[in-house]
Specification:
The structure is a single chain. The chain has 187 residues and is mainly β. The chain has a domain of 123 residues: Immunoglobulin-like (Sandwich), CATH 2.60.40. It has one helix and twelve strands; from the N terminus they run αββββββββββββ. The strands form three sheets. Strands 4-5-7-10-9 form a five-stranded antiparallel sheet, with no helix packed on it. It has a four-stranded mixed sheet with strand order 6-12-11-8, with no helix packed on it. Strand 11 and strand 12 form a beta hairpin. The radius of gyration is 19 Å and the shape is flat. The termini are far apart.
Length: 187
Amino acid sequence: MKNIYISAFIVTICLLGLVYGCVSEYRPSTTTTSSDTLPYDEAMVTPGGWRYRGDFPQYKQNIAQQSAVIGEQPDQAQITYRSDIETKAGETRTNLFYITLLNVSTETPTPYLANIQTTLGVKNIPNGLAFVQEGEGYQGAGWQTSEVLVHIRIAAGIKPGDYTFQVAVNIDGKEYGRVPCAIKIVN
């Protein structure tokens, strides 16, 4: 019996090491900072999905995000993302969009546990900014959620100031609505 407990303990330690070892980083090739000082908003892949580097306690940078509900009843979605980003010219910023369908039941045409396909588009993006959807991930076994990794590339020659645009959220081929995004370029 003692051997069973020891074996269970060893398996648990191995699993924890495996999970800890699964944390990796996504580094876009256009990031202008050196590898030893990666930005706080760099996306990291964890067993639970993408997270900002700054969200981990050792980095002590809280990433401010906001939530919005878009769509018409009964087709609504909650979007959590960074609506306001401050940066310098020539940098690339990461924006993670967490999307969850609301009011989903097991009787809907799309099964409750199915993944949703999300694409983001931009409306009225100012010159000097590029909005690039890099990939999409899912939390758990679906649960009608999606995580979309976006990089916003800022041209080196863009002038300091406030720039705004809208992000159109398309879920399974249908536009649910738009959310505002603001980029503040500082010296």
